[in-house]
């Protein structure tokens, strides 16, 4: 075999390995159960500049959404998360964690949507939360039960009805 044939075969093998790796990832929206401790101590900041650790919400059913201003799907679903929080009251806490954007940008965006005061918005300047949940799409949402178990991990956008169903199925 000549050198170019060997290079071609090598490229095909590498490309095949990449395609197989991507195809074997879970794209159904649900991942295996994980533990709250993987991200509970991450330091986040609220819109008032207060440091917040997710640890303080241990024992509370949580819906945690990772979002960013540049994400068009986030614009569509953030008002639905706010509506979900309004519907559920204190039964479940909905938290939206912005990825690596300054306060002015994130808050300006939620002000524009008219939802700033409807749920808890946190800032993650180091993107630690997103990394801790193995994020690779936008947006990503996790549902954490009262025992601190991530019972559902949705990759990609959700409708309000999907959010309601996920809460009923995984948190109640």
From TrEMBL:
One of its GO terms (molecular function) is oxidoreductase activity. InterPro entries: Redoxin, Thioredoxin-like_sf, Thioredoxin_domain, Thioredoxin_ResA/DsbE_sf. PROSITE patterns: THIOREDOXIN_2. It is found in: Cell envelope. The keyword Ribonucleoprotein does not apply. GO terms for biological process: cytochrome complex assembly. Transmembrane segments: none annotated. Its main location: other. GO terms for cellular component: cell envelope. It holds the Pfam family Redoxin. Residues 33-172 form the Thioredoxin domain. The keyword Disulfide bond applies. Keywords: Cytochrome c-type biogenesis, Disulfide bond, Redox-active center. SUPFAM superfamilies: Thioredoxin-like. This is Thioredoxin domain-containing protein. It comes from Candidatus Kaiserbacteria bacterium CG10_big_fil_rev_8_21_14_0_10_59_10.
